[in-house]
Input
Amino acid sequence: MLTDKIKPDTAALSLIREGVRHMQGYVPGEQPIQTDLIKLNTNENPYPPSPAVLEALRAITSDALRRYPPPMSQPLRTCIAEIYDVPVSGVFCGNGSDEILALCTRAYVEKGRKIGYFDPSYSLYPVLASIAESDTVEVTLGDRFSWVDPPLDAGMDLFFLTNPNAPTGMRFPMDRIALFCERFDGVVLIDEAYVDFAEEDCLTLCRRYANVILSRSLSKSYSLAGLRVGYAIGSPALIQALDTIKDSYNLDIVAQRLAVAALTDQAYMQNGVRRIRKTRAWFEKEMIARGFALYPSETNFVWCKPPSGLSAPLYVEALRLRNILVRHFTAERLAPFVRITIGLDTHMEQLLRETDAILEEKHD
Amino acid sequence: MLTDKIKPDTAALSLIREGVRHMQGYVPGEQPIQTDLIKLNTNENPYPPSPAVLEALRAITSDALRRYPPPMSQPLRTCIAEIYDVPVSGVFCGNGSDEILALCTRAYVEKGRKIGYFDPSYSLYPVLASIAESDTVEVTLGDRFSWVDPPLDAGMDLFFLTNPNAPTGMRFPMDRIALFCERFDGVVLIDEAYVDFAEEDCLTLCRRYANVILSRSLSKSYSLAGLRVGYAIGSPALIQALDTIKDSYNLDIVAQRLAVAALTDQAYMQNGVRRIRKTRAWFEKEMIARGFALYPSETNFVWCKPPSGLSAPLYVEALRLRNILVRHFTAERLAPFVRITIGLDTHMEQLLRETDAILEEKHD
Output
């Protein structure tokens, strides 16, 4: 470095922590610049957020931007505590639920202890474990991606449990989850990013067990993926540990105020969820009629396998050529499947038409 | 846990990582709810952000909120790269510069290696080191808080160098900084949160040395403390390491768009900085005339010692009773001093009047 005055990137590389140097970061779904695409690849909500959110946005003043925001997002925590009837000290707010998941790896996992999760599940978990330099326990799901009891003696301090699961869209049986939470001696983070679209949530478990913490997101059911707001509910001791290590002002004032507006309008969110579930039910039937194998979704997407003769990658590519984006994962067990976000009825109708055309071509 | 069905917080405590359990988090300056206070305690800018920022805010649509933001803040990075004539691959954007500092502790520091910083300096650094479970090297500044060469053989992988320094407001000599950067074999993070108010910046150093990364903030000079946007400039290898470990979508769409608007209006920022520097020069003279000892500030605050007979805590308390908030630090070496943010001229006039009254009372 002494002699090398022009930026030598090979020298800089040696400055990077060994574990990070060759690490693969998380790869988010494609965000195309092209605007005439039907975008069913990242589980965004097709409906706009509540009008109350836009009102709150317009009401932001210069003075609010100029000053530091409430460092603990106190008004937002109070709002969430009231909605779910939990103490304010049992609520945490994060810069997206991704921040909450990352903080959990730093708050609850001792050096040398492990982080567990199901395989398949949210592909961010192994990345977070790698950043935290924790070994992992991947618990392979059973036939048709069904629940398997995670081991209790594998040295895990934290288990990420997505429910409903992604990318399969299925909810796990409540009694099996509860039994695991009761027996496991580490922290169970139940990632409920999609739970507003499901039949049942795990709020009772985090009331009952001191080692259970829920995380939720405003990205899907509240149509606010652009805003980056997630929250966690758990025992005050678990929450306080997150507070100790979070960035001082982790949520900006705009995100705090707009999140309060969105959460306060529960009726709007629930109405939007009803519409998506209705579209989902209709769309599932249509896909089954076309020979697709479907899994029972409790989310805002469906997980399906194209009929024999049409591979998932070919189907995804054919849709792409017809300006429809859906998501494909290359991991061996996931490769035969396609994940399709539930969009507007018109989007799904268009997708069905293009699917018919693709199936037609295949037979020619 | 098996028998304890009501949330037992003592049980939950054992779930927290040992190092976090008794850790003291960072304590931000007070954000009072009372609105008639003159707030000179957290170095907020007294002028509003550029009108272009408000325009950008009003232009945010439902659709922008509904979709995921650009995960790498690409438009914002491009804007910054153009302003400073650096490659886009040499720019990182963070959720406040605090996120950047925290990421550095995870990107550049091997297990068992240390994190260094000056004492006194930004009080967040030891907290970040503690979260990263890194030992620290505190380099005590010299007489009148002047530069001291940090040791080169102390096992440090990262050195946090605030320039101008806080809470003293003074800039370190460029040649001493450069020599240290050249000789040090770890990463030097030059924290330039206040640099827009200074005579000179260290951009040339990060162009010259592969181990230097700058962090800056929109909180002070751009009047956007509420928005949480910071950026870093450094070699592509250093930047890429931050990208690998950052949260997938670390900046929301509102923060990204408003930051572009603010940065594009350089003339507005520079004009605001000129006004604050003018107020600072005048205010410094007034305080010296009243017997305060002042340090040469290159920031938007002054660091001063009250005249003999008036202790700093008493002065701060007396101002507080008169509805003026300034900042006091209790660490032994800092306790004789007061940090006063430069506000509007009217704020500083009011502070001088109250100071006169306080000094008067003291003599009665």
